[in-house]
Amino acid sequence: MNRRQFTTRLAALFAAPALPASAVSAAASAPVAAPIAVSTGASSWASYLMAMHKTCTPTMLKSVLNVSEGMAETLHSRMVSEGIIQDGNRVVREVKQRIKSALETPDMPRTRPAVAEDMDALADIWFDGWFEAHADHVPDELKALRNSDSLRIRLENMLETTDVVGPVGAPVGFCTVKGDEIYQFYVSPAARGTGTADALIQAGEKRLKDSEIEVGQLWVIPQNARAIAFYQRNGWDGDALENVPLDTAEGPYLLPCRILQKAL
Asked: What pLDDT, in 10s, does the model give residues 200-244?
C-alpha cells in the first residue's frame, strides 16, 4: 500500500467530511460563547496528527478538515480543553525555544588564568592582532612604540588579571582587565569562529563583576568595525568618542577611541 492509498483509507475510516456541514453552519450562526461539538472524525484526525507529528496545530487541522481558519482555531481550542489533544502550539514553541537555546549557548572553550609560560605566545598574539586591527588607522609614531619586546614587558604586570584559552605555553587568545576596563583583548586568527572570543569576554566580565564593578568599559578605535560588532553582540555599546591615554613603554599616548560600556 502506497502513501496515497493509506491516506485515502484513513480518511474513509475517519469519515469525510469529518465535520458535518450542519455543524459548520450552526457554529457560524451561534453566539461566540456557544459550545462547538467536536465530531468523531475531527477528533480522530487530531489524535492521528499528534501521534505522527507530536503536535497538532490549528493550521494542521484547517488542512485535514478543510474548514476555515477561525473554525480550526475554535476546534483546536475545544479539543485541548477537553483533553483530546495537547496544545500543539505550546509544543511547537517549546521545540523552537530548545533550538534557540542550543544555538545561543554553544559549548565554549574553557578559559584559565594566564601563567608565565604563556608570555611568549601572548606577546605574539598581541603584536599580530594589534597591527592587524590598528596599523592602517594610527600614526606611525604610535606604531613605532608597539614592538614585541615592549608588549612582553607589559605582559609581566598583566598576568594576574589575564585569562586565556588554550594549553599552557600555546594559548590562542587572551583577555585582560584593568580597574573597570576590559583592557586588552585579542584572539589569534586560527581561533576565530570557535567560541574563543565569547568565552574570553565572559571571563573578563566575570573578573569585573567579582571586583564589584557595576559598569565596565572598553576602548576601541572607531575604524575597527569587526571588534565593535562583536562587543555590541555581547551587550557593550556607546557612541562617545574621546582622546584616551593609551599605555606605551614611553608613557601615555592620546588617541581618539570609541568608549563602550556594559552594565554588569
From this structure: 999 999 999 999 999 999 999 999 999 999 999 999 999 999 999
DSSP codes of every residue in 126-159: HHHHHHHHHTTTS-HHHHHH--HHHHHHHHHTTG
Residue 50 contacts residue 69 (beta carbons within 8 Å): no
Q: How far apart are CA 141 and CA 145, in angstroms?
A: 7
Tens digits of residue pLDDT in 22-48: 444 444 444 444 455 677 777 787 777
Range list of H helices, the chain: 3-14, 21-29, 40-53, 58-65, 69-81, 88-104, 119-134, 140-145, 148-156, 196-210, 225-233
Domains and CATH numbers, the chain: 3-104 (no CATH), 112-263 (3.40.630.30)
pTM: 0.61
C-alpha cell at 5: 492509498
Distance CA 198, CA 208 (A): 16
Crossing angle, helix 58-65 and helix 69-81, to 10 degrees? Answer: 120
